[in-house]
Specification:
About 13% of the residues have low confidence. With 671 residues, this protein is an alpha/beta fold. The protein is built from 15 helices and 22 strands. Among the domains are: 73 residues; 237 residues, 4-Layer Sandwich (Purple Acid Phosphatase, chain A, domain 2), CATH 3.60.21; 111 residues, Nucleic acid-binding proteins (OB fold (Dihydrolipoamide Acetyltransferase, E2P)). A hairpin with a 2-residue loop joins strand 18 and strand 19. The relative contact order is 0.14. Accessory subunit of the DNA polymerase alpha complex (also known as the alpha DNA polymerase-primase complex) which plays an essential role in the initiation of DNA synthesis.
């Protein structure tokens, strides 16, 4: 077994050269200590390397030791967060006393909640020794914060690690990844004459007024109906797709020898637990299974790939009434691809064709916040991107939040005056965050629009945006007027589905890929090191579920790594809580895809940037333009014109697929 783990670690961590013996020993000890598979350990290493903000993190003995310390610190924080009351009691009690079961605790309900109640009888030697040690020890005078968090240490702290100034960044302009490299880039295509008119037309395919809902007014009945309706909708889709009769469906929680098809939502058997192969349950709707949950067991050879909130269709039996034994996982139907009639395509083609008949590719520049590192508010990365836009003159500049990040230490401190540009005439006694946004964001955008009047700028908010009054996701757009944004700027909702000419563009600034990677549980029947593309698989989950954020429930804020405030007196010993997903369950339907798959899906994430084609959808993660301690990446998309419809297609007037994935070149570039 150790040999198998060693070979898997070699394959994952160093495929081209053998790992040093001391490095291999540390990695093996980590898999044993934390009960992780080599693949899970490798995913954690990738996250750690990206979080450090360095260009490359070499696998050396020192970096592995730092990685080990980081994992141990995270484990300690997680364990403390799960038992905050015990931490407080142990810290403040002057004379610790054991809680005897015979002293009123008839059912043992106080076990684990008071010092000394470790699940062993009060008369046991182990319990007595613990109490005696507690009585003889000197009480601690330090009070632990009630959130049970230890100070962030190692790489988890925003203030730790080397800081690379933006001017000293390495490999600026380097192309990290290219998709469809055989196509020419819009920046290198010849343009015969400067453009004087916009070549794109925007149309929202989302009911934007519905996003102006009142946050924190959710009712349990409406939330449960939303969750139930999603299961029932997929039940009808599965029935139509697989041509199943009504009698084929049943309640997986009911004991029966008959084989049935059950449609439901994947959940964990513990409310605050982490999903694993032994804790997978299926939650039914009230119509199909009275809202009951059934424990799932999979027959040998049945592959599964699940996460909390995923809607699945399973065939199996529940003979003993204790667990639903799955014999087959039924496929879910995908939405049809986006399509247009030949006449509509011709109109869009004419819009992008110059007077001389030259149809140059449309160019998109796509970037995601944060736009400045934790050490300053210079927004140097954003200024560099806008300089590129001034030179390349793209048709679309897509910027997703956060813009003024609530998790930024300087913004959290509130002392912004020393970090504002000297040209900003702001009264510090009367200034608002809107004034800060105008000085740091709006002014550079105004200068770009004056230099490139044909550009269209799309701003997508984030739940981490300090200027947004919408605090939950799905999130309404922020007001454009008070921010002094130019007319070329379009502020949209989060998420949003847009038509840019014929192209259907889906955008959400919510980091779904990080949530999926943390919560995903997959059968290992295929083995490790088989060349599977994890990021493409996660993107396929989003497309299959027809939702911008299909995970439910998302990871709690308390379970996320605490952020060091970097400011004395702010955040205390426990650090600052991250914002988290902030879902409003009653309005999750606003995140659903209605009728077609998007041609392009932009989902920014803290995971490594990528561009991939999944189920005929071009999925782009541009990465963050600025990392916590260094520069990041952005994406440049060059969309070539679609081939003209034939005479037969025009006469038939049937809808034609957009085929964006085959005529778009994407370059992921270091800023």
């Amino acid at each position: 077994m150790a040999d198998d783990s060693s070979s898997q670690l070699h394959t994952l961590f160093s495929p081209h050269a053998p790992l040093p013996s001391d490095v291999l020993h540390e990695l093996l000890s980590l898999t044993s200590l934390l009960s992780l598979t080599p693949e899970e350990l490798f995913y954690k290493w990738e996250s750690y390397a990206f979080k450090m903000g360095t260009e490359t993190t070499l696998i050396t003995y020192k970096t592995v030791k730092d990685f080990k310390k980081d994992l141990q610190d995270a484990l300690e924080r997680e364990s403390r967060a799960k038992a905050p009351h015990a931490s407080v009691k142990r810290a403040v009690a002057a004379t610790p006393r054991g809680a005897a079961r015979g002293n009123g605790d008839v059912f043992g309900m106080m076990e684990g909640l008071t010092p000394g109640s470790d699940g062993v009888g009060s008369g046991s030697a182990r319990g007595g020794a613990k109490r005696k040690a507690g009585e003889l020890s000197t009480p601690s005078g330090k009070v632990v914060k009630s959130n049970g968090r230890s100070p962030p240490t190692g790489a988890m702290s925003r203030a730790d690690g080397p800081v690379t100034s933006f001017a000293e960044r390495q490999n600026a302009g380097q192309v990290v990844e290219t998709l469809n490299g055989h196509l020419t880039s819009a920046t290198t295509a010849e343009d015969e004459e400067p453009r004087i008119e916009k070549r794109v037309l925007l149309k929202a395919n989302t009911e934007i007024p519905k996003f102006a809902y009142k946050s924190m007014a959710m009712q349990l009945t409406s939330a449960s109906e939303i969750l139930d309706d999603r299961i029932d909708t997929f039940t009808e889709l599965v029935q139509d797709h697989h041509k199943l009769p009504d009698s084929a469906f049943g309640n997986p929680a009911a004991q029966s020898t008959a084989e049935i098809v059950a449609v439901g939502r994947i959940a964990c058997d513990q409310p605050t637990g982490k999903l694993n192969a032994a804790s997978i349950t299926l939650e039914t709707s009230r119509r199909m299974g009275a809202g009951l949950r059934a424990q799932l067991k999979f027959q040998s050879g049945v592959n599964y790939d699940v996460f909390p909130g995923k809607i699945v269709a399973l065939r199996g039996t529940n003979v003993n009434g204790e667990a639903f034994l799955v014999s087959e996982v039924l496929s879910l139907p995908l939405l049809p691809p986006a399509a247009s009639t030949p006449s509509e395509l011709s109109i869009h083609q004419d819009r992008s064709t110059s007077a001389t008949g030259n149809a140059a590719p449309l160019q998109y520049l796509i970037a995601s916040g944060p736009y400045t590192p934790d050490t300053d508010l210079s927004f140097a990365a954003l200024h560099t991107l806008l300089d590129l836009a001034r030179t390349q003159q793209p048709d679309i500049l897509l910027l997703t939040g956060p813009f003024l990040d609530l998790e930024h230490p300087l913004l959290a401190s509130g002392d912004l005056e020393p970090h504002l540009p000297t040209s900003a005439h702001i009264d510090p006694d009367r200034a608002t965050l809107n004034d800060v946004f105008r000085a740091l964001i709006s002014v550079p955008l105004q200068q770009l629009c004056q230099a490139v009047p044909t550009i269209t700028i799309i701003l997508v908010p984030s739940v981490r945006d300090a200027i947004s009054t919408a605090v939950s996701w799905p999130q309404d757009r922020f007001a454009k007027g008070p921010l002094g944004l130019p007319k070329q700027v379009q502020v949209v909702t989060n998420p949003i589905t847009l038509s840019v000419n014929e192209t259907v563009l889906g955008i959400s600034s919510q980091d779904i890929f990080s949530e999926l990677r943390r919560e995903n549980v997959k059968s290992t029947a295929g083995g490790l090191g088989s060349g599977e593309d994890m990021l493409a698989r996660l993107a396929g989950q989003v497309i299959e579920q027809r939702h911008f954020f299909p995970v439910f429930p998302p990871q709690a804020r308390e379970a996320l790594p605490a952020l060091s405030s970097g400011v004395e007196g702010l955040g205390g010993d426990g650090g600052v809580l991250p914002i988290g997903a902030g879902l409003d369950i009653g309005f999750l339907k606003l995140g659903e895809w209605l009728s077609v798959r998007p041609d392009v899906l932009v989902l920014p994430s803290a995971l490594p940037a990528f561009a991939k084609v999944v189920d005929s959808v071009l999925v782009i993660n541009p990465g963050t333009l600025s990392k916590r301690r260094g520069a990041g990446t952005y994406a440049s998309l060059s969309l070539h014109p679609r081939s003209a419809a034939s005479d037969e297609e025009r006469e038939a007037n049937h809808v034609l697929g957009h085929e964006v994935h085959s005529r778009a070149r994407v370059d992921v570039v270091r800023i």
